[in-house]
Amino acid sequence: MEGAAGEGSSAMAPIVKWKNDFSRLFQYYLDRSTPHMVERWLGTLATVMIYVLRVFFVQGFYIVSYGLGIYILNLLIGFLSPKVDPELEALDGASLPTKGSDEFKPFIRRLPEFKFWYAITKAFCIAFLMTFLSVFDVPVFWPILLVYWIVLFILTMKRQILHMIKYKYVPIDLGKQKYTGKKGGSSNVTRKD
Fold this sequence. Notes:
Layout: H1 2-32, H2 37-58, H3 62-80, H4 86-91, H5 113-130, H6 142-167
Helix pairs in contact: 2-5, 3-5, 3-6
Transmembrane segments: 63-81, 116-134, 140-157
Family: Belongs to the RER1 family.
Subcellular location: Membrane
């Protein structure tokens, strides 16, 4: 009995080794792509365009596209939401700072940008592969799906924007703020020797 199990595991050893090597190499390149945000998003944009062209020329797979749209909407909500919800924090007694003397709490996303990018890219790749399987080409009247998704998007974004306004947070990072000095007359002072 042990011989049969040993033979099966020795036959699987090269597959497991190949899988581990591939996983390690994939993670290496994924880690190296982290600081290159513009290039990553341009690659994702190219993937999106390939997917859109595929769906356009095949004239099908609308249910796959609808599911992809719902998934991306879910990711977008996580990307725009704070890690700690102020509504739940207010129930605990802690709240966002309202005065200059209060503790500063930076905006931390529930879904970081890198994970957001990776999930969207992976979703479009999987959806693209699904367009080659006819089982996913369910005949539907796509304009109804599109209108329903647009209504869902508007209602969800309205709720999210009202939440942002209510708790005064901005999820968009505009980069590091730079100190430019005082705007008073200190720069106009001339020195007499």
